[in-house]
Amino acid sequence: MSSLWIDTTNELDQSKSLGKDLTCDVCIIGAGIAGLSTGYYLCKQGLKVIILDKSYIGTKTSGNTTGKITFQHNLIYDYLINSKSEKYAKAYLDANKKAILNIKNIIDEEQIDCDFENQANYVYTTKQEELHKIHKEIQALHILGEEAEFVTNCDLPFKIVGALKENNQAQIHLRKYMLGLANCIKQKGGEIYTNSTVINVKKDNNEYITFANNYEIKSKYIIQACHYPFINFPGFYFSKMYQSTSYVIAVDTHTNLFGGMYINPHEPIYSFRTAKFKDKRLLLIAGADHKTGFAPDENKSYKLLENFAKKHYPKSEILYKWNTRDCISLDKIPYIGEFSSLLPNAYVATGFNKWGITGSNIAANIITDKILGKENKYAFVFDSRRVEPIKNREEVKNMTSQVFKSFISNRIKIPHADLEQIKNDNGGIIKLDGINIGIYKDASGNIFAINPTCTHLGCLLTWNNLDKTWDCPCHGSRFNFKGENIYDPAFKNLDKFEIL
Ligand SMILES: Cc1cc2nc3c(=O)[nH]c(=O)nc-3n(C[C@H](O)[C@H](O)[C@H](O)COP(=O)(O)OP(=O)(O)OC[C@H]3O[C@@H](n4cnc5c(N)ncnc54)[C@H](O)[C@@H]3O)c2cc1C
């Protein structure tokens, strides 16, 4: 199902797919919030920018967000002070505060109508044993010179034990904002091409050649704002991040709703806000996170959120439900800046840890400053080339080891008994001569067979029966039941097999 945001925005997408060779200063891969924010600032500085997207503007992670604009990324500052330093935590805070102001300024200056609303943000808990974490976070904010209030009451329809409250945060209809940015980019001379999957980038002396739709774009600079960098070597981002999926429902509660934005710190995470919808307001509930690629359970995803809504608002009517995923860096800090020391003039913005709205604005400013040769005082916080210990060695091993033996033929015969293992309207992997074959049987028993090896780095895919997709547990790429790629970092389809 489409998100509330995508469903309520016209496809202002007059943008067309790439149909000729072009030259520009900066080629940006990805028209999500990161690519568009960066494109906006670069165009404003007079650079010739081309943005390529394999899908439509803002229809991937950014089109499926919850749209909270806050520097309070759940509990983060106590962690940052302890794991990095006070200076580092302060710079992270200031960068995010500045990003909120920047977004507000763009909206005012460019007159983008995107339901921007000033809101207080709460990190709340219902558990007595978690309360000390809220207090520690407030203490950390005070150390950093930030006002943060402790409250024991809020407008949520259930009792909390305590919450950290920050005023002057905001919420937004992010897709309206992105379409507004896209318009500004075009007005300032930039070009956006959709349905244009970048399949390769090559370096030729001092310029990059980006390949999409059988055409080439030559540029001095390239920016991978494609959510998950698709260039694997150098960079090695696949060993520094994983993806996590969350679910969102938009509910007509048929009652008056609260103000403010809310999130709790620990599993199961519930995040709340309200949103304008026609002449009423809807309640948005997000949560039920899990590592992308691990088969989701209806009861632990949408049902969990729906039950919650119905318990507290018995007249609840679910109007929208959707899910999406984001890249999670191993140290909770996005990767922004140079893609690799081996590739000059190539930049990246990724690993936003589900807080990519302020993160993208920070990225846009850092990368713009780098291209203009200006210093950016927050760049050191997000340095994409930082060397962090890889904490989860088991995961990294999984990420790289499951390489598939290649098939000689794409026509295969599977014993009837093996096929019987998979029920109708379900999928799974069966083994044939020690080789994995991904099977999906639709409701009528039609069989779709694919090679369940991710075309990104060869991990074994898992079947997701909720969305009828093949998902990668290593890096989060996703494919539909026919094997067609729907989510990065992979961009190639899976091999299909014909069952004899
Ligand atoms: C459920 C959920 C709720 C969230 N809520 C919030 C929130 O309230 N506040 C907040 O700050 N953050 C939130 N986030 C995080 C935020 O939405 C993301 O960090 C942000 O949208 C990521 O933006 P992006 O531009 O990097 O990625 P995307 O929006 O995914 O954009 C990347 C683009 O690159 C394109 N692309 C990929 N590969 C290629 C290729 N090979 N060639 C051409 N194009 C390509 C894709 O089609 C896509 O359009 C949330 C995340 C989730 C999962």
Distinct ligands: flavin-adenine dinucleotide
The average pLDDT value, as a whole number, equals 92
N- to C-terminal distance: 34 Å
How many runs of DSSP E, i.e. beta strands? Answer: 26
Q: How many whole angstroms does the radius of gyration measure?
A: 23 Å
* CATH class category of the largest domain: Alpha Beta
Architecture overview:
With 500 residues, the protein is an alpha+beta fold. It folds into three domains: 4-64 and 175-240 and 332-391, FAD/NAD(P)-binding domain (3-Layer(bba) Sandwich); 116-170 and 243-329, D-Amino Acid Oxidase, Chain A, domain 2 (2-Layer Sandwich); 400-499, Rieske [2Fe-2S] iron-sulphur domain (Rieske Iron-sulfur Protein), CATH 2.102.10.10. Helices cover 24% and strands 31% of the residues. It contains eleven helices and 26 strands. The chain has helices spanning 4-7, 33-44, 77-83, 86-110, 131-143, 174-187, 302-312, 356-372, 379-382, 393-401, 416-420, and strands at 22-29, 49-52, 68-69, 117-125, 149-151, 162-171, 191-193, 198-204, 207-212, 215-224, 241-252, 261-263, 270-277, 280-291, 317-329, 335-338, 346-350, 411-412, 426-432, 435-441, 447-450, 462-464, 469-471, 478-480, 485-487, 496-499. Strands 3, 4, 5, 6, 11, 12, 13, 14 and 15 form a nine-stranded mixed sheet that branches. Strands 1, 2, 7, 8, 9, 10, 16 and 17 form an eight-stranded mixed sheet that branches. The protein has a five-stranded mixed sheet with strand order 18-26-21-20-19, with no helix packed on it. Strand 20 and strand 21 form a beta hairpin. Helix 3 (77-83) packs across helix 4 and helix 4 packs across helix 8. The protein is globular, with a radius of gyration of 23 Å. The two termini are 34 Å apart. Flavin-adenine dinucleotide (FAD) is lined by residues 29-35, 52-55, 60-62, 65-68, 197-198, 225-227, 230, 246, 248, 286, 324-326, 352, 354-358, 360, 488, 491. The site of flavin-adenine dinucleotide has 39 residues, from helix 2, strand 11, strand 15 and helix 8.
